[in-house]
Amino acid sequence: MSDMKNKRSMQIAVMALLLTATAIMVMPYAWMALSAFKSQQEFGGAPNRLWVSDPTLENFRGALDPGTGRMGRYLFNSLLYATTTTVFQLTLNSLAAFAFARLKFRGRDVLFTIFLSTMMLPFAVRLVPQYLITVHLGLADTLPGVVAPNLAGVFGIFLLRQFFLNIPADLEAAASIDGCGTFGIYWRIVMPLAKPALITLGIFIFMAEWNNFVWPLVVLSDWDKYPVTVGIALFRDEDSIFWPKVFAASVLGSAPLIALFLFAQKYIIGGISLSGMKAQ
Known about the structure:
Layout: H1 2-35, H2 40-45, H3 58-64, H4 71-102, H5 108-117, H6 123-136, H7 143-147, H8 154-165, H9 169-177, H10 182-193, H11 195-210, H12 214-219, H13 228-233, H14 243-274
């Protein structure tokens, strides 16, 4: 009986801790979202107050205005960059992962180790060389210039390789006996079985590209090509910041990711286990 009480008390303590941590993480966003419905006068009079006395949609209208806010354009650009990057990465990463997992060639393991070692290089180290190469190729201030450095990713290759290694080799042997070639095995056998891993990786890539800030800021100079992350930073005057309008733009910019998480959270959680799968 005492053990049951102790277990119950532990569960209550853990639940209370989780609720407290959740409140701490959610509170800033809730404050920002509610403040987006305040007028500048109301926000200036009581910026820390959560409730809204006189809610207004004027901040959202201003953020979406094609002349001043341009959030509609920024959202479209982010969607274009994130979708393009996701499609290319899923294609190229899966091909590379299949080669590392199933094809036998000299130096395969050494090459894969070199690939993994590049994950230790911070982005700041690659930023200047990456920018100079982009300018030299004439891709600055263009869509290819934004997405080209992220058309393939080491993390995606690693995750898919781990998944491919756990697919029974007997399936591929049977397909080979039936006359299926290497690409046929990749496309007809491995890819359908890897659907959970591909969905998980696609979500990770899309979210990372949507939140990308530094590279678009460096490589782009045309405001009409900015993504949401850079566009929100432009919601300020030279000598002041209209915070409710900034908050409205931030809510619009984060809404797609929140919707994506709510729709595909089981795949995001599953990705934790997929990335830790042990190769056999």
